[in-house]
Amino acid sequence: MVLNTTTQRNNDTTIATAPTQRQALGHSARSAEDVVSSYRCVVVFKRFGEAESNYFVAFIPKRRLTVVLDWFPAKLDIFSPIDQGLYVILPKKYMDYPLPDSESPAKSQEASPWIVLLCLVAFMLVGLILGSMLINALLLAQGLDGLSFLGNMKEDASLQQRNLARWANLFPHLFAFTGGALAVALIFFRRSWLQKLQLRHWPNWMFIAAGVLFVLAIFPVAQTSYWLNQQLPLPMWMKDMEKSANELVKVLLHMDSPAELLLNLLTVGVVAALGEELVFRGIVQQQMNKVFKNPILSIWITAIIFSAIHMQFVGFLPRMILGAGLGYLFYWSRSLWLPILVHFLFNSLQVVAYYFLGEKAEQFSPDQAIDSPNWLGGTLGLVILIVVGYYMSRLHKQQNS
C-alpha cells in the first residue's frame, strides 16, 4: 500500500477554510495554493507524474493516521487537517513509500528488544562459523594449515599469503556482521526492514559535510585517547592480544600494487563499515533505545559494546569514542548511510595512507603506540568535534520542531 496522492475535488473548500486547525499546528492561515507554492508543489489535486516537482501532496485517511505516523521515517509536514484525515507534504523520494498492512499500531506487533538482540548474537555466531568454514576450506585447498596460518604470518609474507589473509578476514566478517544483521532485519522487520534500519533515505549535504569534518577531527582525538589508554595498568594478556592484532594488521597493510589497495579498501573499508554499522547503529543502538528510552545512554552503551567486541583493550578508549561519534551521527541525521560513510572514510584513509607512505603513516594512525601525545592536535580536534556536534544537534532539533 502506498500513500494516496489523488484527492477529490470536493475537498478544495475544506482545505481553504481550515485556518484555525492550521494555526494550531503552527501554520499561518493561507490558502492551499499558497502553501503548495511555498513548498514548490505545482498542483495539489493532480497525480504527481503530471508535473515536475521536488515535493508532492499526499492524503492520509483518518483511520490510517496512527499507523502512518508511527512508521514513517521522515517528518510529516501537516498543512491541512480535516475531519477525514490529513494532507501532508512529502519529498518526491517517498512517492512509493510502503505502509504496513495492519490498521493497528505497529508497536504492538514488535518483538521484544532483548529477543531481537539475542537473535542477532545467534545469527552472528552462525555467520562467523559459516564464514570460517568457507575460508578454512579455501586455505586447505591451497595447501595451508587452515586458519591457523594467520597466527604465523610475518611481515615478509608473500603476495599470495597476504591476499589469502585478507580473504580470511573478509568472509567471516561479511557472514557474521552483514549477514547476521540482514537476517535479523528481514525476520523481525520484514518488508519495512529498510526504514527500520534507516536505510531508505540519504542524509542531506550538510550532514555529509559535517561527517567529513568529524573524520578529520577524530584522528588526533583518537590518538591522544590511545595514549591515555596506554597509561592504564592492563593485564599482560590484553597487551599481548593487542600486539598480535597489530602485527597482523601490518601484514595486511603491506601493499605493493593497486590491486592490493583495492582489496584492502573492500575488506577494511566497505565490508567492515557496512557490516559493523548495520549491527551496532542499525540494530543494537535502536534496540537499546527501546529498552532505556534514552538515546544518549543508548549511544554510549552501544559504543562500549562496539569497542569491546574488537577484543583490543589497549585501544579500547579510542574505539569507544569513535563508536559514540558514529552513534551521534546516526541519531542526528536519522540515516544509517551517514555513519556507514564516515566509518568507511575513517578506515579507508588509513589504508590509503599506508599505501602511499608505508611505515611513515604510523605517525598518523590512531591506534599506534606513542611516547607522548599531541595535546595541541587532540585539543583542536576535540573543539572541532564539539562545534560539529553542536551544529548537527541544532539541525536535528530543527527537523523535529
Q: Reading side by side through the largest sheet, how are the strands ordered? A: 1-3-2
Structural class: mainly alpha
Poorly predicted regions are: 1-52, 98-108
Q: Between the first and last Cα atoms, what is the distance in angstroms?
A: 28 Å
Strand content: under 5%
Instruction: Classify the helix fraction into a percent range.
Output: 55-70%
Mean pLDDT: 78
Radius of gyration: 25 Å
N-to-C SSE string, H for helix and E for strand:
HHHEHEEHHHHHHHHHH
Number of helices: 14
Outline the biggest β-sheet. 3 strands, antiparallel
Overall outline: globular
Q: Tally of extended strands?
A: 3
Question: What report would you give on this structure?
Answer:
This protein has 401 residues and is mainly α. Strands 1-3-2 form a 3-stranded antiparallel sheet. The N terminus is likely disordered.
